[in-house]
Amino acid sequence: MITLHFSSNSRSQRVLWLLEELELPYKLNKIKFHPSELKSEEHRKRHPLGRVPVLEDKDVIIFESGAIIEYIIAKYDRKELKPGVDSDIFPTYLQWYHYCEGMVMPPMNTVVVHTLILPPERRNPEILRQAKNLLTKSILPVDELLSKNKFLIKDNISGVDFMLGHSLFMANNLGCVSDDMKNILRYLELINSLKSFNKAVNT
Ligand SMILES: N[C@@H](CCC(=O)N[C@@H](CS)C(=O)NCC(=O)O)C(=O)O
């Protein structure tokens, strides 16, 4: 049985969304998003930095949301969530899959730190302004991508949606998706209409 170590309002939602989409049986271990639980000895045994998500599957224990999504797709996919290596969309799939943690999440982390994590007196408005600017720049090409596709890669849901699609949801929650990013707004409505996504973001 799969166990997902999960905190609400975090990247853990990516994994829960995928488990729900594949209708896999799983157990959820909800961890409070607070050092008392994240940095506990028990959780540090699962993740050296005390972060989420972490997935356990029999004798496997794995962290990094991107690696977890890859693992689940490789082992349990029944919806063709990743194109085969010979498919012409394979390189595009890889590119946007890694664009999430590589380009979108670094400025988003800074926005989160300077709006939610640091105490008000340590927040820096100039760093926040730059990070928001960079985040907007990094999602603009995704808006362009979504002008051609229903989901992020063509017209069906794929591994990229659980990663990059979820980061668009987070960017929107932080007020970083502007009204003129019409394709992203249309896409957010689409994923919001999915039962699997709703379960993930409301758990
Ligand atoms: N690159 C990692 C990032 C993991 C990460 O930083 N998770 C955040 C939640 S989204 C966390 O656990 N933060 C707790 C902390 O920083 O103490 C992944 O994709 O899993």
Counted beta strands: 4
Average pLDDT number: 97
Percent helix range: 55-70%
Structural class: alpha+beta
Largest sheet: 4 strands, mixed
Radius of gyration: 17 Å
> Hetero groups bound?
glutathione
The SSE string, one letter per element, is: EHEHHEEHHHHHH
Q: Which CATH architecture of the largest domain is right?
A: Up-down Bundle
Shape, per Cα inertia axes? globular
How many helical stretches? 9
CATH fold category name of the largest domain? Glutathione S-transferase Yfyf (Class Pi), Chain A, domain 2
CATH class category of the largest domain: Mainly Alpha
Low-confidence stretches: none
Number of separate structural domains: 2
Give the spatial strand order of the biggest sheet.
2-1-3-4
Q: How widely separated are the two ends?
A: 20 Å
Q: What share of residues are in beta strands?
A: 5-15%
Structure notes:
- There is one protein chain.
- With 203 residues, this protein is α+β, with helices and mostly antiparallel strands.
- The protein has two domains: 2-76, 3-Layer(aba) Sandwich (Glutaredoxin), CATH 3.40.30.10; 90-194, Glutathione S-transferase Yfyf (Class Pi), Chain A, domain 2, CATH 1.20.1050.
- It has nine helices and four strands; from the N terminus they run E-H-E-H-H-E-E-H-H-H-H-H-H.
- Strands 2-1-3-4 form a four-stranded mixed beta sheet, covered by helices on one side.
- Helix 1 packs parallel to helix 4, helix 5 packs antiparallel against helix 6 (125-145) and helix 5 (90-117) runs parallel beside helix 7 (159-173).
- The longest helix is centred in the middle third of the chain and has 28 residues, at 90-117.
- The radius of gyration is 17 Å and the shape is globular.
- The mean pLDDT is 97.
- The structure holds glutathione (GSH).
- Residues 10-11, 38, 50-53, 64-66, 101 line the site of glutathione (GSH).
